[in-house]
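S1.2 Input.
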Amino acid sequence: MRYLLLTACVLSCLHATAQQDSYPSLQLPDSLTADAHALVRLDEMQVTLHAIDEMAVSAKRVVTVLDPQGNDHLQAYLRYSPAIRIKKLGAVVYDAQGREVQAFKERQFTDVSAVSGGTLYSDARVKYVPYTPGQYPYTFEFSYEFETPNTGVLPSWHFLDNYNIPTERSSFEIRFASPELRPECVEYNLEGISVDKLVTDHSIRYTALQVPAIKAESLSPSFRSVVPRVHTRMVNFQYEGYEARIQDWATMGRWINQNLLEGQSTISRVRSLVAGVEDPLEKARLVYEYVQTNTRYISVQVGIGGLKPISAIEVDKVKYGDCKGLSNYTMALLQAVGVTAYYVHVQAGRDKVDFIDGFPDLAQGNHVILAVSDGERLHWIDCTSRTAPFGFLGDFTDDRRVLIMKPEGGVLARTPAYKDDANRQETRARYALDILGGIAGEVQITTSGIQYDNHYGLESQSADDHSRHYKRYWPEINNLKLRSLHFSNNREAVRFTEEIHLEAQGYASTTGELMLFAPNAFNRWNSVPKRYRERQLPLQISRGFLDEDQFVIGLPEGYRVESLPEVRDLETDFGIYHMGLEYDADTHSLTYKRRLLLKENLFPANRYEDYRQFRKMVAASDNALVVLVKS
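S1.3 Output.
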């Protein structure tokens, strides 16, 4: 009897433990799941620094997925290479009751190249779980361990994944065998959550429980700027066989130049391209266009392909490369013709992310560009683009602090900023209304700055792409037909012009004796940001612009003007808006003029409603109607 009772007790304890570890999801509190597509139940990582060339990482991540949109937050993959040796890899799927549905061992993971389109980086690979859920909610547990001799890039830690994704438990610990291996840590936005930090002689640990989601709001700052996070770095480290002691960005740049870039050059035929050219900037332009014409880009993030570029000789042979390889190749060609160029690390993307001043860290930066010197100033080029003009970056790398690798050391600098009226669009149109409400005419759109970046790709697209683009661009024009298109790309002035001849039936509506239409047929700012009862986050207008429009509108015979929209003039902290209409009796036409300047800036949350009102007034004015009546 005692044996049976003991056995029953043990089984009961094991069952209770299994239930505790299996993460049932049917009774999750609304405080965590409201507005969420997924919930991170556990996110933990332990980094152990055994030596300057020996690091071990173990991690477990458990995510409850509430609906199909939550599948994007599994992050059930592991990148590896010869320098990253996987020691353990597995996954378990649980149903809503917390019962195990399926388990995956490492051999059941799909193993693919991290790069498509080339063989230079065939040793960079990814293992992931090919799981298709049968029902929701379900819980996914993913765990791994790996070892690497590269200690130059330590994991950084985010206590939340993204907007609207809460976390039940988050734990990040770094252990180090000796004081010389103690990493430096810098913390951001931790004041908004309850974090337990424990520091000992051989470890640093952060633990946070019940981390609430940050709710997404229209025109919020980038998630990175508000998420609670910790960045880490080693002062003394080893990377790809090279040891380093990095105190600041200057020593970082010098170390990269001496160990990762030197010896990577080649002599090329480009010297013949620049024969007789003395201006270094013109030489650089010719070399840049040669690279654009004769190579292609394959996408390999810095974190996947490592920091060291493939040799320029190899890129010259295969005619393709990633951002590191193409930048290094272009730099070698420029050096061969006597032009000074510097290799630059940047955190690329639509969000402007700066390198952290005073915290030199190899993990910062996901892209490489070049800074070309003409002896007086720097000109920036992205060698991965086959179409961007020389010296134009666009919104992928503009206006952010980057690291320039100069022979004497690294220097933090800022890439060019395209501010407000530099991002210009000028729209000129002449169109006529017929008696049935149809329109026909021609439109010319000229863009520069970031607005150029959004338009110039049209010249390389197909006719079907053009049709889809303009129907999306002018959603208010039904039955749109493009009669002809012509594009002009002034790469030297960085100006793109579109000339469109079009027609459409039923643009104006007719009711009895009346005809009504919006004179602004080609550039309406219709959207109004969502209203929030209690706005929490600041308002970020990340990019300003200037639109100037003038449309001449021929009115149909047999109709006269009954009423015109009122002139609108707005001047606010957010921007300036003007709209006005004039009737010319001699030509029986209207001239519509509109000017909208939006100003880049960051405003406190309490200014959001003021901005909404500005947008509402602009939208109302852009949609205002002209009323015609039969004579």
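S1.4 Remarks. The two ends are 107 Å apart (CA to CA).
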